[in-house]
Each structure stands twice: as structure tokens, then as C-alpha cells.
Design brief:
single chain, mainly alpha, 28 helices, about 0% strand
């Protein structure tokens, strides 16, 4: 008995030592990056989002922060609440926010380790099981491609989502293994439901969980069960679930994203997006297999769009590679199930972001879980390599690869830890990227201290001008130049205004450009002396092209009344605000707009909005609303 206890204690201490070593090595790789800045979407989602800038942990404040995600404020509550906690603890110092992301990543590394233990055991790996799982988890955690997911603060949505997805996968595996062994596995399977809901509270990527479990059933689990009835149940359950999913996709999702305005904000259409993914996925594979940081520019806003299978020709080649991998997974399903699982998990990990949803074409964080699939394929390949003189050469090779990954990951993390170095590196890797140049220009401006006598200030202006004339640039560099010219009373703002208005008229209205324009209006409210004639011209163009949110129309109307004196255009803006809110079923906001107009002495604008609402069929409620406002 004493020997058994001693053996268990030694085994436990080995596990603890392995886990501590794993955590320590991963933390060591990412630590140099914690001093870096907020970047890109961090600013609108976190820095500029006043609703998560809480100062305490009162329930009301936390709930307001949790429901602050745009668009809609109806999703990702768990992730948004975690950001509010960061602000309550440390304000807007990015160090603490990045540390929070690292802690989530460390938790995920532990869960990946446990998951790999289970998967390797199912695949028949018994020798060096713990070390093999640790090597997989370490390789996954320190891979340079993961740096942008961990240190890009807003992507805690992705990493936190995976935390609960991994827990759900572990619960699913536990339940299914108990079932196959004739045990009581259903409590573990039921636990997957609340874990899935928690994962959804971080990001919609959690909806991929059924694809991950289907891949497990197709490979390692093989729809097993202790009885024939159980085996039939799982086959039929997944068959019906798959058919239902395909039916929903074909009848609901595809029609929604083939609607005329579905890709209004993009400079590519649905077919071009799908064709381009035939090149994007092989590019991801290349970055995973040859993880040189210089091949990971982070910004891909100038990525060439595929317009046909032969333009460029790599579209067809990439499609052929992907089809070949899927065929290989079919061939490996019985012969090498771990490798087949890896291939299927890679594709499942990209099933949402490489599909019909009009997301941006490329982002590295989309590989956060999919990377593990590639590592499983490599692990199976290494395991099956025949050696004559024992496993020493395999161990040596694996250690060398892990050291290389850790070294490259540390280099990339250190780059992310320095504001100017990061911006300069991105601009150097991708000089045709508007976003990379925008970051570099802002870095120069911040280092200049706002002094127009500083050479760095002149460099910033040059970089913004360079960005503004790129073929795929939005209005952001022009907006920045307009603001700088106004703030420092510099001459020569007209070319920037000309470009800004022309881009609003002729180029796709990306979310980035819309955010930049709204920020321009906000700066006018803050007292920046902008050219109201040109700003009104831009508003007129934008209202003629885009379907905006009700509160944006109302903001335009208020600006036009307050600063520009454009009464007729303001009437149009308020009418659009009322109609847009009614179309969305938000009658309360329509009433609020009308009441505010009447209270402010702008009855002409209220009557115009009401008339437009009558013409659209909204009458009784709005009549009451205006009469009530007048009586008040």
C-alpha cells in the first residue's frame, strides 16, 4: 500500500512539474510583449468604449459593460465584462489588459495539454504520453502565429471563447469514453451545454463545437458505444444534426448573405471572398509550418482578392491542395485517426470565418485553435517515422523544433512590446497596407509630443499622405490629416478634404471609414474648428449612399442644426432617424427624436419626420408622440 501511495505521489509531482514548466515557458515567451500598446480594433471596442470604463465592481456597471459590444450590444457579454474588470483594476494602461490575455492563454495551454493527453491515449500512444502531450501544448502555445491572438487585447474574445470550448471538448470526451466503456457518461455530456453557453458569451466561434465533436466521432471515437443501440443513436444523431445544419445554412444563412447589400461595406463580393479563401487557408498552413515572423504582417488589408480560379492562378492551386488534404483525411480516418482528426479540426476551425459571412479576408487569430489540428498531424507523422536506435533522434528533433518556436515567438512578442518597433516592423513588412502606415504615422506623431517643430511631426504627416493615396485606403488618413491641420492651424487641408469626400462617394464604406467619419463629427462637438462647409458636403454624400443607424442620423441632424445651419438636410437626417428606428421596431427611439425636436423648438423638422413616417405607414403612435411632446 505504501509503495502504491509513493507511486501516486511521484506521478502527481511529475504532472505538477510538467504543468509548472509549461506555464513558465509560455509566460517567458510572452512577457516581453506585455509593455506594448493597444492596436487597431482595441481602440473602438475598448479604449473608446465608455461603457466598459467602469471604476468599481457594482452589478449595474458590470452589466452595462457586458452588454456594450457593438453591433447591437447583445453578444460577447462575458468577454466585455472581463474588459470592464481590467479597467476597474488598472484604467487604460494596456499592460494589465495584455496580462489578462496572457492569463487566459496560460489556462488554455493547460487545457490543451489535458486534451492532448486524452487524444494521444485514444490514438494508442502510451510511451512518453505525458511528454508528448506537453510538447504539443507547448508548441501550440508559443507558436509565433499565436502572438497576435494573445497580445492583441480585443482578441481575448477569441481566446476566452476557446477556454470554455476546450472544457466542453474535455467533458464530451469524458462522457463518450465512459459510455463506450459501459459507464454513466450522460452527466458529462449534459455539462457541454452550459459550457457552450459560456463560450458563446465570449464569441460566436463557440458554434463550431459540434463540428469539433463530429470530427472526434469520425476519427478517434468512431461513433462507439457499449451497445448497438448506443452506436446507432450517435450515428443517427449526427446525421440528423448535420442535415439540419446544412438545411439552415442553405435556406437561412446563404440567402441572408446573398442579399444585395450584404457586402456593401466590402470591396469584394461573396464569390470573390470564397475564392480568396482557397489562397488564405494554404497561406495559414505555410505560416504554421514555416513560422518566420517576417511572414506574419498582422495587417492584410491589401491582400489580393481572387476574381476567378485562375486570377491569380494560386487560387486553383490552393483549392487543389485543400481538396487533397480532405481526401487524405478520409484515407487516414481508419489508418491514422489522429492525423485525420487534425485535418478536420483545421478545416472546422475555419468553417465560420472562411465562409459566406462578409468578414475581412484574413486575420491570424482565426488559427488560434486550428493550429492544434496541424500539430496533431505532425505529431502523428513523427510517431510513425521508423527509427533503428530508439526514440532519441525524435526527442532531439522535437526539442529543437520547440526551442526554435519559442525563440521565434519571443522575438515576435518582443516586437509587439514596443510601440514604434511594432509599427515600423508592420509597415516594413507590408508597405502597401493602409493600416500599417496609419499605425506608423500615429507612432511618429505621439513621439513628436505634438510639436510641429519636431521632425517626427513632419514624418507623421508624410506617412499619412503616403497612406491616403494607396489604392485601398479608406478615409482614416484623410480624417487624421484634416484634424491635424485644424488642431495646429496648418495650411493646405483642402486636398485631404477632397480625397475624403471622393472616397465616401466612390469607395466601399468599410466599418473603419464609418468609424473615422463619426469620430470627425465628435471632434467638432469637442470644439475642433473644422470646415463646416466640407463636413456638410461629406454628410450629404454619406446620407445619399448608406443605410446608417438611427442615432447616427440623429447626430447628423443635430450637427447640421447646431453648426452648419442646413435646415433642409437636417430635416432629412431626422426623418431618416425616425424611419430607421421604426423599421427596427424601436418606437421608443422614434418618439425620443420627435420629442427632442419639439422641445428644442424645431417643430418644422418634427413635422417633416412625422410626414415621412405617415407616408411609410406609421401614423397613430407617432401622432400621439408629437401631440404629447407639444402638450409637454
Amino acid at each position: 500500500m505504501g509503495k502504491w501511495v509513493d507511486g501516486r505521489a511521484r506521478l502527481l509531482s511529475l504532472h505538477v512539474a510538467t504543468l509548472l514548466a509549461l506555464l513558465g515557458l509560455v509566460a517567458l515567451v510572452y512577457w516581453p510583449g506585455l509593455g506594448g500598446p493597444f492596436i487597431f480594433d482595441d481602440f473602438p471596442a475598448l479604449v473608446g468604449n465608455q461603457r466598459i470604463h467602469v471604476t468599481g465592481l457594482a452589478w449595474g456597471e458590470l452589466w452595462r459593460a457586458a452588454t456594450s459590444f457593438d453591433p447591437g450590444g447583445t453578444g460577447r457579454q462575458l468577454a466585455m465584462a472581463s474588459f470592464a474588470l481590467n479597467h476597474a483594476l488598472g484604467g487604460l494602461d494596456p499592460w494589465g489588459w495584455k496580462l489578462g490575455g496572457l492569463l487566459v492563454h496560460l489556462a488554455n495551454a493547460l487545457l490543451v495539454y489535458v486534451l492532448c493527453l486524452r487524444l494521444l491515449a485514444l490514438a494508442g500512444v502510451h510511451e512518453y504520453l505525458r511528454l508528448s502531450a506537453a510538447a504539443l501544448a507547448l508548441g501550440w502555445a508559443v507558436h509565433p502565429l499565436q502572438v497576435s491572438a494573445v497580445l492583441y487585447v480585443v482578441q481575448r474574445m477569441e481566446t476566452l471563447c476557446l477556454t470554455f470550448t476546450l472544457l466542453a471538448l474535455l467533458a464530451y470526451l469524458r462522457g463518450r469514453r465512459l459510455q463506450i466503456a459501459g459507464g454513466r457518461g450522460w452527466p458529462w455530456l449534459l455539462a457541454c451545454a452550459p459550457l457552450l453557453l459560456l463560450a458563446l458569451g465570449a464569441k460566436e466561434s463557440a458554434l463550431l463545437l459540434p463540428l469539433f465533436t463530429l470530427a472526434l466521432e469520425l476519427t478517434l471515437l468512431a461513433f462507439g458505444g457499449a451497445t448497438a443501440a448506443q452506436r446507432r443513436f450517435w450515428r443517427w444523431a449526427y446525421a440528423l444534426g448535420l442535415m439540419t445544419g446544412v438545411a439552415i445554412f442553405v435556406t437561412v444563412v446563404v440567402p441572408h448573405y446573398t442579399a444585395p447589400n450584404a457586402y456593401f461595406s466590402r470591396d469584394f463580393d461573396l464569390v470573390q471572398r470564397l475564392l480568396t479563401q482557397l489562397r488564405v487557408l494554404p497561406m495559414y498552413l505555410g505560416q504554421i509550418l514555416l513560422p518566420i515572423p517576417a511572414r506574419m504582417p498582422f495587417y492584410y488589408d491589401d491582400f489580393e482578392v481572387s476574381t476567378s480560379l485562375l486570377h491569380p492562378w494560386t487560387t486553383l492551386a490552393g483549392g487543389g491542395l485543400l481538396v487533397g488534404l480532405l481526401l487524405l483525411s478520409t484515407y487516414w480516418r481508419k489508418r491514422a485517426p489522429l492525423a485525420a482528426l487534425g485535418v478536420l479540426w483545421f478545416f472546422a476551425g475555419h468553417a465560420m470565418t472562411s465562409n459566406v459571412v462578409p468578414l475581412e479576408l484574413v486575420f491570424e487569430h482565426r488559427n488560434y485553435f486550428a493550429l492544434l489540428g496541424v500539430l496533431l498531424v505532425l505529431a502523428e507523422g513523427v510517431r510513425r517515422i521508423p527509427v533503428r536506435d530508439g526514440p532519441g533522434i525524435k526527442v532531439t528533433g522535437t526539442v529543437a523544433v520547440l526551442v526554435a518556436l519559442g525563440f521565434l515567438g519571443t522575438i515576435r512578442a518582443a516586437t509587439w512590446g514596443d510601440r514604434l518597433l511594432l509599427a515600423a516592423e508592420h509597415a516594413n513588412m507590408n508597405p502597401d497596407s493602409p493600416r500599417a502606415l496609419q499605425d506608423l504615422g500615429i507612432a511618429y506623431y505621439e513621439l513628436s509630443g505634438g510639436s510641429t517643430d519636431s521632425p517626427l511631426f513632419s514624418l507623421a504627416l508624410q506617412v499619412f499622405e503616403q497612406e491616403a493615396v494607396l489604392p485601398r485606403s479608406g478615409i482614416l488618413p484623410d480624417q487624421t490629416l484634416v484634424l491635424l491641420h485644424a488642431k495646429y492651424e496648418l495650411p493646405g487641408a483642402e486636398p485631404a478634404w477632397d480625397r475624403l469626400v471622393a472616397k465616401l462617394r466612390d469607395r466601399p464604406l468599410s466599418p473603419e471609414s464609418l468609424i473615422a467619419f463619426y469620430a470627425l463629427i465628435e471632434q467638432r462637438y469637442k470644439g475642433v474648428e473644422l470646415d463646416d462647409r466640407r463636413l456638410t458636403e461629406a454628410i450629404r454624400v454619406l446620407m445619399g449612399r448608406a443605410m446608417l443607424l438611427p442615432h447616427k442620423y440623429a447626430q447628423f441632424g443635430d450637427y447640421l442644426l447646431r453648426y452648419a445651419g442646413e435646415m433642409d438636410l437636417a430635416s432629412d437626417a431626422f426623418a431618416n432617424a425616425v424611419l430607421s428606428s421604426l423599421d427596427r421596431g424601436d418606437e421608443a427611439y422614434a418618439r425620443q427624436v420627435l420629442s427632442a425636436l419639439v422641445d428644442g423648438g424645431h417643430e418644422k423638422q418634427a413635422e417633416f419626420a412625422l410626414e415621412k413616417a405617415r407616408e411609410a405607414g406609421f401614423t397613430e403612435l407617432l401622432d400621439y408622440s408629437v401631440q404629447h411632446a407639444r402638450a409637454k
